[in-house]
Structure formats: structure tokens, C-alpha cells
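Q: I'm a student working through a structural biology exercise. My instructor gave each of us a protein and asked us to get a predicted structure, then write a short paragraph describing it. Mine is Helix-turn-helix domain-containing protein. I'm not confident about reading structure output yet, so if you can add a plain explanation after the C-alpha cells, that would really help. Here is the sequence I was given:
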Amino acid sequence: MESIPLTFEQLPAYVYQLGRKLDDLSNLLRSQSEGNQTLKPLHFDIHELCEYLPDKPAVTTVYGLVQRREIPFGRRGKKLIFFQSDIDLWLATKKSKTANEISGLADQHKTSFTRGKKGGSRV
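A: Happy to help. First, here is the predicted structure for Helix-turn-helix domain-containing protein. I'll explain a few features afterward.
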């Protein structure tokens, strides 16, 4: 920063300009700090997750997903937490099964059910 030689007559105008710049900077900092307060949370509790998910499931439904380990979760003490990045990735990769996949799973289930019976298969 270079020093500017000022005369006594120029000093009030220069101080006024400095005050304006200082006000502008403080307003800018204030607006940025207000913007930071509205950031999305990085993790959810179970109730916040129910509101975040697109189909708005019930809390018991989410507990079922956790029990079957179908949804990514963590624990903080006794509380369940769900990280937003993990949930977003899970939602992006979650897909419905096609009719052929369902038919194949049904055939696998049917053969595993009849394989252990005495006297052959019952179809």
C-alpha cells in the first residue's frame, strides 16, 4: 500500500471515502455470514431424513430400512444419523427391478423351495 501525500484540506474527503469503504466491507461481510447460516445440514436425524426423502416415508419405514441395512446410516451414541452425501448417492443408485429380474428371482426362490422336499419337486 503506497502512501498518498495529503494536504490538510483533502483530509476530510479522504476520511469520508475510507468510512464509505469500511461500511461497504462490513455490509459485504454481514451478507456473507447470513448466507452461511442458511446452508444445508451435513447430516440428518431420522425425522429430518423423513422430510428430506422424496416419498416422505414414515419413521417406522426408515427404521425398517435401517434394520435390513438397505439405507446408509451411522450412529452417534444411541441416535441414528444419516449423512446427506450418502443419502444422495443412495437415492441416485437406487433403482427399481425390471420384470425380467423379478421373474428370475421368483424362479430362484421356487427352485430353492422345492429342492429340499422328498419325493421330487412340486411345481
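A: Here are two points you could use in your paragraph. Helices lie at 11-37, 46-52, 59-67, 84-93, 99-115. The chain has a mean pLDDT of 83. It's a good idea to check both against the output above yourself.
Q: Great, thank you!
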